[in-house]
Amino acid sequence: MKEKILEMEKYAKDYNVPIIEKASISYIMQFIKENNIKNILEIGSAIGYSSILMASASEDVKVTTIERDQNRYMECLKNVKACELEKRINVVCQDALELNLADVSYDLIFIDAAKGQYTKFFEKYKHFLTDRGVIISDNIKFHGHVANKDKIASKNLKQLVGKLENYIEFLKNNEEFETTFLDVGDGLSVSVLKDGK
Question: Which residues contact 66 (CB under 8 A, 6 or more apart)?
Fold first, then answer.
């Protein structure tokens, strides 16, 4: 497993595939153990790096991970199989905003997909949380761009950062969830569903 993880890190670097930073996934794995998380939904599989590590946090963790890019989906499937985790990781190839989930609920939802769609992902999938369920979002700092928006030359990048800023405001003002922002890796937000919601 360790060799496979290193191999995936190298693949991500060589092919410029964004994967979660080590500090962030370490925090999430610890969170899974400490909070007895069993059922996880991940939005944005990429090559399966984070779903494999989340599943390896504890032997009774199950992960459903959604990826819309066909090539990354195939790479993810291959990696899950190589780690012999296909019984505990279900890889779905679809756009997360178009997917209709059946009657399932998750202890943890991890958002690490298209940055401009974070609010939509949050709104769509929050209904699938268990009581006191948690939504963790990655890349809240977005490589430092969020703190330095004025210095961005690219119009597209500026728009994307604007959407992330809106998402941060959305989380801060969301009365259903209590959100903590962590300066871990590329920035994480941890949104806990409040009691009785």
Answer: 41, 42, 43, 44, 45, 92, 94, 96, 99, 113
Instruction: Read off the pTM.
Output: 0.94
Instruction: Please give the angle made by the CA atoms of 41, 171 and 69, to the nearest 5 degrees.
Output: 40
Q: Which CATH class is domain 2-193?
A: alpha beta
Query: What digits encode the pLDDT tens for the residues 48-68?
Result: 999 999 999 999 999 999 999
- Best CA proximity match to 135, nearest among 105, 155, 165: 105
Q: Domain residues of the chain, as ranges?
A: 2-193
3-state DSSP of the chain: CHHHHHHHHHHHHHCCCCCCCHHHHHHHHHHHHHCCCCEEEEECCCCCHHHHHHHCCCCCCEEEEEECCHHHHHHHHHHHHHCCCCCCEEEEECCCCCCCCCCCCEEEEEECCCHHHHHHHHHHHHHHEEEEEEEEEECCCCCCCCCCHHHCCCHHHHHHHHHHHHHHHHHHCCCCEEEEEECCCCCEEEEEECCCC
Please write the tens of the pLDDT for every residue from 133-152: 999 999 999 888 878 888 88
